[in-house]
Amino acid sequence: MAAQINPSILSADFARLADEAKAVEGADWLHVDVMDNHFVPNLTLGVPVVESLARATDTPLDCHLMIEAPDRWAPQYVEAGAGSVTFHAEAAAAPVRLAREIRAKGARASMALKPATPVEPYEDLLPELDMLLIMTVEPGFGGQAFLDIMLPKIRRTRELIKKHGLELWLQVDGGVSAATIERCADAGADVFVAGSAVYGASDPAEAVRALRTQADAATAEASWSCDH
After folding, report:
1. What pTM was estimated for this model as a whole?
2. What is the pLDDT of residues 17-47, one digit of tens each?
3. Binding residue numbers for substrate
């Protein structure tokens, strides 16, 4: 699969979200960070903004729910127009049931793991998912430095995906930039959330294209891709 670049609107101008979405129309998805000031120490946006964004852009929405009680709230984001909904393993009471509900409502189901959460306990759950998100920073704030210590975890996750023959996307989020995206792709990631690296650029659309080119080149040389 070709690398996918998902600009994070956490780094966009919140007063101009519709315009900021249009500025990256060549992106694969628009990454929407939902934070509740409980699961993470920050508060961003909710269902009404997602509904408005879904009307304002043709780019599908990739909603990352950094919230408590995702079992209750995640289905509402599908109804609001999200094409993919990510809940956190650390917050979900019944992740299999929730993933199935998200899928039943018509969206892709994704689960996120914080840096300290190992992937191995969730191996048997992976077939229930369309994507797994490996956080490469502590969730809650944009603009953080990439955690290199997550690269072995990305590799182990890719190995699990191959072991089970899954068509599971592997997303990374946090500190992804021109300086780090190739390492992520080499380790096994194929979906890349980029905030500051896109919206901090003078030409966000060109930044998306450049990141995709870098990721595709690194993937082509990666051992996991050559073995696929």
Report:
1. 0.97
2. 999 999 999 999 999 999 999 999 999 999 9
3. 8, 64, 140-143, 173-175, 195-196
